[in-house]
């Protein structure tokens, strides 16, 4: 790369030209890219750069050019074609090529991808990744390796697909402390829940569709069981609060247990059910942050209740800025490519400016921080029981909740025949999770209560 002083000269030439002409193109610096992974996201990145590379060059004053793309099998069909002469099956060719300045890792997983990134960083190359699973498992190690090598590790595409949430937290909101972040951060789950609700579609059919569209992880259990959202919300929590949140500390529940029956009752009560990631500052004697992922009843009046399909949204509350909302496609080849290329642009500008970053991709700025155990978290609840319709059942259930100091705010019991099992839906006031767990354990032992109670939390966004 030419030194920074040459870059400044180039800027002067650029400013003196009225238009982005041919001569300027020849004078412009070029940043060479190597990509490992050319699947859904990788082929999307290649396609987007073909489509808008000239526009990016005009905006950045740096031309971006692919040198090599490593894949597993050259002839594998790809969502978008990648120029065959660039393809290799040896990822080390990408990492070891001295002409490649930026390595984009789009393989996924926590195995070989870690070796690829560490290897690229050790050679002083800037790395761009979309790999939230890897960041969640090995973030501190990877950021430490980046710091050692003086290179950067960018990861915009790892959270919320095309939404620039990482950059917003890192740069746009640098003047804020964050009291709450609420995120619909998994496109696959939101797609499944939305279609189940809107069309009465079956879980398995919608999941197969999400896989066809390239939204789901491999395996999709990472999405369905909430772990992909856990990885993402952990990254957001770490960035917002300045200490690394270990994924083991994040209470995580997925959407497997959500039935259409619960969606219908939630609707009747004025709520929608979404898989919600929550990062919330909790004050008082037991101060700390809540970091969790679980299916949540969201009031229909709240903007997050109408985020549907593969769309993601992040509601960020800063002490200076107030409430803000980000919305966009959370998965898929094109939206994710947009985020990857925004990191590539930052990396290219760092290189052009002699390696100087404006705000580092991740800095642990707080020495201490406490993630609260789920038992200490206070919330409201929706409970669905299957009970035998006979006198005294509701009184017994109410008494158990009362002993645990949990108040009932509303009850629905569809009319049935005496002696038969019917659903009983209870909305409960604020209570700690530990108290709720104990009460439900007692209730589920009552002879009139059949099957496992369904318990979902209700968010008030206060
Ligand atoms: P894909 O499975 O579609 O692509 C993976 C790519 O990696 C394929 O091109 C595959 O090659 C290649 N690959 C696998 N092993 C190797 C290897 N040893 N050497 C070289 N190449 C290899 O995954 P996605 O594109 O969906 O996901 C990539 C990353 O992006 C993941 O971390 C994912 O979590 C993340 N992500 C995905 C989103 C999405 O919507 N899909 C959105 C946001 C992030 P081949 O093509 O030959 O099989
Ligand atoms: N599987 C992920 C999702 C991809 O559905 O959100 C985007 O990170």
Residue ranges: pLDDT <50 for 5 or more in a row?
1-26
Shape: elongated
Biggest sheet architecture: 10 strands, mixed
Indicate the mean pLDDT: 92
Give a description of the structure.
By secondary structure, the protein is α/β, with parallel strands linked by helices. It contains 15 helices and 16 strands. The protein has helices spanning 4-16, 22-27, 40-60, 91-96, 112-122, 132-149, 165-172, 187-199, 203-212, 221-224, 227-241, 260-268, 333-352, 393-403, 433-444; strands at residues 29-36, 62-70, 87-88, 102-105, 126-129, 153-154, 178-184, 251-252, 271-282, 288-299, 311-318, 322-329, 378-388, 408-412, 421-432, 449-458. Strands 7, 8, 9, 10, 11, 12, 13, 14, 15 and 16 form a 10-stranded mixed beta sheet that branches. The structure holds NADPH dihydro-nicotinamide-adenine-dinucleotide phosphate and L-homoserine.
Helix/strand layout:
Layout: H1 4-16, H2 22-27, E1 29-36, H3 40-60, E2 62-70, E3 87-88, H4 91-96, E4 102-105, H5 112-122, E5 126-129, H6 132-149, E6 153-154, H7 165-172, E7 178-184, H8 187-199, H9 203-212, H10 221-224, H11 227-241, E8 251-252, H12 260-268, E9 271-282, E10 288-299, E11 311-318, E12 322-329, H13 333-352, E13 378-388, H14 393-403, E14 408-412, E15 421-432, H15 433-444, E16 449-458
Parallel strand pairs: 1-2, 1-4, 2-3, 4-5, 5-6, 8-10, 10-16
Antiparallel strand pairs: 7-9, 7-11, 9-10, 11-12, 13-15, 13-16, 14-15
This protein binds NADPH dihydro-nicotinamide-adenine-dinucleotide phosphate and L-homoserine.
């Amino acid at each position: 790369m030419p030194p920074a002083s040459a870059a400044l000269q180039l800027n002067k030439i650029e400013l003196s030209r009225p238009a982005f002409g041919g001569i300027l193109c020849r004078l412009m610096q070029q940043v060479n890219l190597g990509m490992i992974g050319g699947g859904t996201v990788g082929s999307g990145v290649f396609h987007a750069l073909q489509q808008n590379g000239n526009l990016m060059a005009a905006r950045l004053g740096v031309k971006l050019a692919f040198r090599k793309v490593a894949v597993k099998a050259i002839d594998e069909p790809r969502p978008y074609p990648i120029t065959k002469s660039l393809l290799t099956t040896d990822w080390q060719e990408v990492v070891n090529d001295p002409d490649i300045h930026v390595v984009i890792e789009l393989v996924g997983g926590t195995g070989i991808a870690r070796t690829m990134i560490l290897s690229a960083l050790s050679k002083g190359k800037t790395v761009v990744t979309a790999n939230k699973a890897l960041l969640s498992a090995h973030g501190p190690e990877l950021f430490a390796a980046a710091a050692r090598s003086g290179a950067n590790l960018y990861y915009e595409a790892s959270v919320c697909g095309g939404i620039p949430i990482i950059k917003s937290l890192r740069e746009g909101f640098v003047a804020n402390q964050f009291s709450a972040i609420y995120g619909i951060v998994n496109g696959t789950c939101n797609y499944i829940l939305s279609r189940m609700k809107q069309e009465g579609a079956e879980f398995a059919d919608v999941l197969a569709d999400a896989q066809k569209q390239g939204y789901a992880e491999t395996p999709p259990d990472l999405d369905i069981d909430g772990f992909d959202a856990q990885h993402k919300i952990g990254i957001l929590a770490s960035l917002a609060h300045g200490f690394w949140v270990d994924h083991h500390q994040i209470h995580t529940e997925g959407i497997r247990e959500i039935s259409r029956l619960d969606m219908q009752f939630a609707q009747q009560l004025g709520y929608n059910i979404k898989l919600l990631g929550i990062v919330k500052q909790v004050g008082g004697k037991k101060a700390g942050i809540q970091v969790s992922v679980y299916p949540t009843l969201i009031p229909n009046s709240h903007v997050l209740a109408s985020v549907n399909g593969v769309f993601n949204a992040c509601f960020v509350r800063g002490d200076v800025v107030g409430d803000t909302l980000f919305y966009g496609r959370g998965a898929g080849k094109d939206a994710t490519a947009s985020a990857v290329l925004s990191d590539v642009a930052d990396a290219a500008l760092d290189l052009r400016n002699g390696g100087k970053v404006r705000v580092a991709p991740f800095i642990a700025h707080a020495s201490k921080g406490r993630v609260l155990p789920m038992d200490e978290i206070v919330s409201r609840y929706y409970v669905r029981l299957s009970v035998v319709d006979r006198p005294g059942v509701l009184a017994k259930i109410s008494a158990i909740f009362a002993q645990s100091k949990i108040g009932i705010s509303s009850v629905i019991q569809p009319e049935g025949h005496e002696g038969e099992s019917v659903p009983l839906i209870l909305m409960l006031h604020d209570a700690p999770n530990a108290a709720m767990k104990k009460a439900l354990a007692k209730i589920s032992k009552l002879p009139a209560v059949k099957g496992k109670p369904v318990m979902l939390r209700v968010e008030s966004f206060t």
